[in-house]
């Protein structure tokens, strides 16, 4: 018998397949939704943890910033108290009479204090301001605008606050006000802002700073310069200032090179060099044009001083050599760097600067290679050189450091700058993290170690400095010094009691500044070394220490309407110095009265040195001058209005 075989109908098998497929789809849908829910939960947890870390980082930065601000305020207050106490201990300022207090002001500081006193003594602020605008009681034979000539805005502001004594803004407004105030109060402020502008131009050219920020800072600089130009009574030197020339050159170069920040590495490097060439070429051309249209003697003198300073040319001009002999324009000595090393500032500054500079160079290479800057840096990244603020301060510190190596006066700007930069570096975990990333440290977690070092290193430094220098500070406060100038006091008392009220005095600028403060008398010149006219008047007055005839000196003094000339023994009898900065030597070179040949010095003048010959009391000196006062340090001669020729 044939076996009976049964076959499932296709309808049944097809339905079973569809049922199994539907079951699979249901199971797949359930499992997929479960996976998606798990992924969303994990994502929400990651976002929540990220927010918690960012919030913790913000709180950490706020706390560190608050403690840093409090520490800075405390240090500043303590330093101000120390300076006040030290000044009082040195000069016995609080225990002296008014005349002796005024004598403790040296040179130019006394002059500015005189104007401050004059503003306080005026019946009203407006009347005192008008007296300074039309001032005929300061420089003989001239009615000058003292506010314009001597930049008396600090004295005006302080006197106004003193009379009336009885918020906070947006960042741009604060910067605008601070920039305007800085330019208004200090005549050399535009040179400092030029260094800042140079750093910003370099950062913009290297694409290390957003263009909007650079444009914003440029607008602040230009608007502040325009306002200060008006407040300084259309001071033409601002129109030819290096700051304005740099801004104009930068704007023109950017206009001509609109696609500078594109292309491969070599192309961008060539565009960068061309861009910097255009910036400086346009800036120098603009400055040269402004100097031709609006000649300013001060700018020409500054250029001449710089040429002589850098050895590009030599000169026998008295004013140029006289300025170069000032300590501020001399090359700094080794004692500056020794003191910075002893206080541990210089070694740590070199460390911080080296790390930040190397990291900045890495950032510059990445930008020129086309890589974008990471705007959301983390501590773990170890890239301190990608922070625009760090890059700016590195460039600024290097510029100030170079200027300090050339001009000793720049140390007053560079020294506090390196102190702040060094403190930032050793207290910054980002700096230590950058080093650990370079070293590829794996034995200890680099984040933890960087946080520990950023706290431990400054603590150790502060403790060591306190242990070494706190006893010195106390000893300086305990040391009672005395300021005594009996000869100068005698001279001032004679001027107050014996000299006519309308008398005009001639002498050295430092002495005349003291006379102006203590007696209010009219003088021929002042200790202001940025005014070319006053410097030329100083040169004429200093001819009393040159090998000039009595008639020649008399003509120069009467041209300044001089009533009395004061000869200082310290200048007349000054011993020879190797730097050749004696007033007598500068005058002899300028007047071509001496020559140097084969190491020997020969005189070419037929007259003796005036300050020595006039003490002999013989004709023709007695015909032109009459001695009316003398002591060990000062000799005062009246300039005769009627000549008496006695032989």
Structural class by helix and strand composition: mainly alpha
Helix content: 55-70%
The tally of domains stands at: 4
Q: Could you give the distance between the termini?
A: 177 Å
The rounded Rg comes to: 36 Å
The major beta sheet can be summarized as: 5 strands, mixed
- Count of DSSP H/I helices: 28
Sheet with most strands: strand arrangement: 2-1-3-7-6
Oligomer: single chain
Mean of all residue-level pLDDT scores: 83
Strand count: 7
Strand percentage, roughly?
A: under 5%
Regions with little confidence, pLDDT below 50 for 5+ residues: 1-31
* Bulk shape: elongated
Describe the overall structure:
The protein has 647 residues and is mostly helical. It has four domains: 100-164, no CATH class; 168-296, no CATH class; 334-475, no CATH class; 499-639, Rossmann fold. It has helices at residues 10-91, 98-103, 108-121, 125-133, 146-150, 153-164, 171-185, 189-205, 211-231, 236-239, 242-256, 265-293, 297-309, 318-324, 334-342, 345-368, 388-406, 411-426, 429-439, 446-478, 486-498, 509-519, 532-541, 550-559, 569-572, 583-591, 610-613, 621-624, and strands spanning 504-506, 522-523, 564-568, 594-597, 600-603, 625-630, 634-639. The strands form two sheets. A five-stranded mixed β-sheet has the order 2-1-3-7-6. A two-stranded antiparallel sheet has the order 4-5. α1 packs parallel to α20 (446-478) and α3 (108-121) packs across α4 (125-133). The radius of gyration is 36 Å and the shape is elongated.
């Amino acid at each position: 018998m044939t076996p009976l075989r049964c076959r499932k109908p296709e309808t049944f098998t097809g339905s079973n397949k569809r049922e199994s497929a539907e079951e699979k789809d249901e199971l797949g849908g359930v499992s997929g939704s479960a996976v998606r829910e798990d992924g969303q939960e994990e994502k929400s947890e990651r976002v929540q943890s990220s927010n918690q870390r960012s919030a913790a980082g913000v709180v950490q930065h706020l706390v560190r910033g608050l403690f840093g601000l409090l520490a800075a305020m405390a240090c500043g207050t303590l330093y101000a108290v120390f300076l006040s106490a030290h000044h009082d201990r040195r000069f016995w300022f609080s225990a002296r009479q008014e005349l002796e207090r005024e004598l403790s002001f040296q040179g130019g500081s006394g002059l500015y204090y005189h104007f401050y006193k004059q503003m306080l003594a005026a019946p009203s602020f407006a009347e005192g301001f008008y007296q300074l605008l039309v001032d005929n009681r300061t420089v003989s034979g001239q009615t000058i605008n003292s506010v314009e000539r001597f930049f008396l805005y600090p004295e005006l502001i302080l006197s106004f606050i003193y009379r009336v004594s009885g918020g906070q803004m947006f960042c741009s407004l604060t910067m605008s006000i601070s920039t305007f105030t800085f330019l208004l109060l200090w005549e050399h402020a535009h040179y400092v802002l030029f260094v800042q502008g140079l750093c910003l131009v370099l950062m913009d050219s290297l694409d290390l700073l957003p263009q909007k920020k650079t444009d914003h800072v440029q607008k602040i600089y230009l608007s502040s310069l325009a306002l200060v130009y008006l407040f300084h009574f259309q001071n033409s030197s601002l129109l030819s200032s290096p700051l304005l020339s740099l801004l104009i050159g930068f704007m023109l170069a950017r206009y001509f090179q609109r696609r500078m920040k594109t292309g491969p590495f070599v192309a961008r490097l060539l565009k960068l060099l061309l861009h910097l060439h255009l910036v400086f070429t346009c800036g120098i051309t603009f400055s040269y044009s402004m100097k031709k249209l609006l000649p300013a003697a001060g700018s020409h003198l500054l250029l001449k001083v710089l040429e002589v300073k850098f050895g590009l040319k030599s000169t026998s001009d008295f004013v140029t050599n006289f300025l170069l002999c000032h300590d501020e324009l001399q090359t700094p000595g080794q004692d500056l760097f020794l003191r910075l090393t002893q206080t541990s500032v210089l070694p740590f500054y070199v460390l911080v600067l080296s790390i930040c500079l190397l990291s900045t160079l890495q950032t510059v290479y990445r930008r020129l290679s086309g890589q974008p800057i990471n705007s959301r840096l983390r501590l773990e990244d170890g890239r301190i050189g990608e922070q625009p603020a760090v890059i700016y301060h590195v460039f600024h510190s290097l510029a100030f450091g170079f200027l300090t190596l050339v001009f000793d006066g720049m140390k007053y700007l560079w020294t506090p700058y390196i102190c702040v930069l060094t403190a930032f570096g050793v207290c910054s975990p980002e700096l230590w993290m950058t080093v650990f990333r370079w070293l590829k440290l794996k034995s200890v977690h680099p984040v933890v170690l960087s946080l520990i070092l950023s706290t431990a290193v400054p603590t150790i430094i502060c403790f060591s400095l306190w242990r070494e220098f706190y006893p010195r500070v106390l000893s300086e406060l305990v040391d009672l010094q005395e300021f005594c100038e009996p000869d100068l006091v005698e001279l001032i008392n004679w001027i107050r009691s014996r000299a006519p009220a309308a008398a005009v005095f001639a002498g050295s600028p430092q002495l005349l500044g003291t006379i102006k403060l203590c007696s209010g008398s009219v003088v021929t010149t002042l200790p202001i070394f940025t005014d070319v006219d006053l410097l030329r008047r100083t040169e004429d007055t200093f001819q009393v220490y040159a090998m000039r005839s009595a008639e020649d000196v008399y003509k120069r003094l009467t041209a300044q309407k001089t009533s009395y000339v004061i000869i200082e023994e310290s200048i007349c009898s000054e011993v020879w110095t190797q730097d050749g900065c004696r007033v007598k030597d500068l005058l002899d070179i300028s007047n071509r009265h001496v020559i140097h040949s084969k190491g020997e010095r020969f005189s070419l003048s037929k007259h003796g040195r005036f300050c020595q010959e006039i003490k002999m009391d013989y004709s023709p000196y007695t015909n032109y001058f009459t001695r009316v006062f003398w002591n060990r340090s000062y000799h005062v001669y009246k300039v005769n209005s009627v000549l008496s020729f006695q032989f």
